[in-house]
Amino acid sequence: QVQLVESGGGLVQAGGSLRVSCAASGGTFSTYAMGWLRQAPGKEREFVATISWSGYTTGYADSVKGRFTISRDNAKNTVYLQMNSLKPEDTAVYYCAADASGTATMAPNRYDYWGQGTQVTVSS
Question: Model confidence over 6-21: pLDDT tens digits?
C-alpha cells in the first residue's frame, strides 16, 4: 500500500511559477509510474503529466506541454511538477497518483493510488 502526500501548492500570479511535490511511502516507489492530475471546480479530473518508473518516459496534456515539467527522484521517493507560465485556467486541486504497472499513462483510471491533493490558484 502506497501513501502519497502532496505539498507546495499555493497562490501565484498569472505568468508565475510554482513547484508541487509528492512524497511517497509504504511501497516500492521506484517501480511505480507516477502522474499528476488536476480537478477544477465543476469539472472532471483531468490528466496533466506522467512519468515512467525509470524517469525516461514522460507525457503531458496538450494544455500544459512546454510549460510544465514532471520529474522524479527515486532516492527521495518524490515526484515533482514544475509549473511555469501559469495561467488562471491552471487553477485546480492537483493530485499525485501512482500506477503499479510502472508504465507512464495518461488514463486517470489506470492509477492505483492517489494523494489528497494540493490547491493551486492562479490569479489574473
Answer: 999 999 999 999 999 9
Return the C-alpha cell found at 93.
486541486
CA angle at 16 for the pair 13 and 19, rounded to the nearest 5°:
115
Task: Please check whether residue 55 is in contact with residue 72, taking contact to mean a CB–CB distance below 8 angstroms.
Answer: yes
Of residues 83, 87, 108, the one with CA closest to residue 98: 108
* Arithmetic mean of pLDDT, 66-79: 98
Euclidean distance between CA atoms 67 and 73, whole angstroms: 20
C-alpha cell at 69: 515539467
pLDDT tens, residue by residue, 111-122: 999 999 999 999
Q: What pairs with residue 49 in β-bridges?
A: 36, 60
